[in-house]
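Thread: flavin-adenine dinucleotide complex, take 2
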Amino acid sequence: MNGSKYDVVIVGGGPGGLSAAVHLSKKGLKVKVFEKKKILGTPVRCGEYFPVKAEMEKLVPRVKNLDVIDAPPESVDTTCHSIRLISPKGHEFEFPFGAYILDRHVFESHLGDIARSHGADIDIGVQAHYFPDDQGGWVGSTREKSVHGDVIIAADGYPSETAERAGLPERAYAGPYAVATNIEYLMTDLNVEQDVAEMYMDPRYSPGGYGWIIPKGHGRANVGIGIREPYVKRDWQIRNLLTGFIEKNTVASKRLVGGNKASMIGDSLPVDGPLSRTYSDRVMAVGDAAGMVMPTNGSAIQTALITGDLAAEAAVNYFEHQTPLSSYEASWKEQIGLEMENSKLMSYAADDGHEEDCRCDNVSDSRGHGNFHETTRLAPHGYVYYHCEKE
Ligand SMILES: Cc1cc2nc3c(=O)[nH]c(=O)nc-3n(C[C@H](O)[C@H](O)[C@H](O)COP(=O)(O)OP(=O)(O)OC[C@H]3O[C@@H](n4cnc5c(N)ncnc54)[C@H](O)[C@@H]3O)c2cc1C
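Output below.
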């Protein structure tokens, strides 16, 4: 043990951990963040799609501190004004929706700079482990090199070693439906529209998920697919599925013609809703570590920022008023619990409709524009919901 003591030690310097670090350091608490990447936000494992604050106000109207989900201009690569859904048969349906496409390296560096400017210690390039004791616990690359925290925040993404070591209930992974596997290229030299994000419903190349073309400005785009294993009928190699999407999807292949693949990333996401308990006496889990991912579309930067902020608020109340950390779970349930639950129910409903020979070619536009807005209102980020019909 190196003997250093902190009020709060955060494992993971992604959006969830850094949002907590900003809040805590501004309140004058002694904070340490461990991040295993050598540079905050790099490499990027994300489509970087980030709905603007005005949209989030409608999608999660009970969130009290919406400032936490805003992006500084220097972290915005481009701005989209609409989403276009493309059905398997190539039918297109576009609706207005404002979103920033972030440069997550800049975005996360910015959060790190704010936290540091208020006194937070951020150690990068350190893969940290949590060694619990009854006063919080020790965190560090080894037990000998650990620092002590009275409160620990598990912000280490999915799957979270910290949450597991804290004894938080393992997520009830009923099976592989609960995990989405995502893979994405950053493509360059493209001629795609720069203010529309496209989402492709194509069971051939994104079974159980969807494909995306998200413009990044200067002829670049994040081009990826998310899939879930039970839906994959053949050719399980996810890289081949992405190649199929880029080369054979009738609409996407035309959009991406002449493009070059600059880099590739992939990762898994929990898409079965939050852990059944997200806190213990001295530990809270935020963001992906807690399963705070919208099941309908796998978006989770915003929920990581929100839950990081709420965990920090709970920690402040713990130190100032001895309020138990259960207040964290009460807060996120009050502010985003309904939306998370609705999103999960919609995802289940879509799964139920996904039978062997169903033909998913009727995107929500077939239900009428008004109805579509109803869908989005009921389940934030529900814009990926689509309606299946049997052939
Ligand atoms: C391909 C893909 C595309 C996506 N696209 C979008 C999108 O367009 N929009 C959207 O909203 N969401 C998207 N997501 C989801 C989004 O990226 C995550 O949900 C979001 O980053 C969650 O933030 P987080 O802070 O909880 O976790 P993370 O961003 O995963 O941050 C966790 C951090 O902890 C660090 N870490 C892990 N273990 C340790 C350890 N032991 N010690 C120290 N550090 C550790 C990791 O290096 C990481 O930096 C996408 C995900 C994927 C995989």
